[in-house]
Amino acid sequence: MMNDKTRRRTRTTAAAAAAVSSVAGPAILSAHAAANDPKATCPGNAICEWEDGGFQTPVMWWSPTSRDLDYRNNQFASQPSEGLNDRISALWNNTSRYVKFFRNPNGSGATICLTPGGAISDLATVRIPGDEIHDWSNRISGHATYASLPSGCDTTRSTQGCSL
């Protein structure tokens, strides 16, 4: 049972908390929203790849001028024993450059392009051009970056699918 002194302390604490939240509320909500944004794990000016759709389980960040045409020689930073090849399910091009991702090692096979700022939260929703059965989830084997739109990229589709 609460006595009068406890009730006063509870009301005072609640009033103080309400006053603080009304002043600091928007800042706290903004910080909270940023903390819950899965893409927030991607550093600025980087090409970011995630193992799981929805930008979950970050695995690799690349510099904006990077070029790696064979992911078979790369490992997850958090799991050095795990290979990166054919393990990517979400992409974000957080750079001002264009990125072309390759289906096969050595820059061969079907490709998908991302314009500056482009993102695909789940590669399982994007079909490989000319292949109605397979999607892009866990099928990326390399990438290259370009200062301007690379040849073969289709700029009319939001996913920027392209072929060589």
Characterise the protein shown here.
By secondary structure, the protein is α+β, with helices and mostly antiparallel strands. It is built from one helix and nine strands; from the N terminus they run αβββββββββ. It has one helix spanning 4-36, and strands at residues 46-52, 56-62, 67-68, 90-94, 98-104, 108-114, 119-120, 142-146, 161-162. The strands form two sheets. Strands 3-8-5-6-9 form a five-stranded antiparallel sheet, with no helix packed on it. The chain has a four-stranded antiparallel sheet with strand order 2-1-4-7, with no helix packed on it. It is globular. 26% of the residues are buried. Residues 5-34 and 157-164 have low confidence and may be disordered.
| Element string (H = helix, E = strand) | HEEEEEEEEE
> Given the structure, what is the number of helices?
1
Oligomer: single chain
Describe the largest sheet: 5 strands, antiparallel
* Share of β-strand residues: 25-35%
- The N- and C-terminal alpha carbons lie at a distance of 76 Å
Question: What is the helical fraction, as a range of percent?
Answer: 10-25%
Count of strand segments: 9
The low-confidence runs, each spanning 5 or more residues with pLDDT under 50, are 5-34, 157-164
Radius of gyration: 23 Å
What is the mean pLDDT? Answer: 74
Strand order of the biggest β-sheet? 3-8-5-6-9
Shape: globular
Classification by helices and strands: alpha+beta
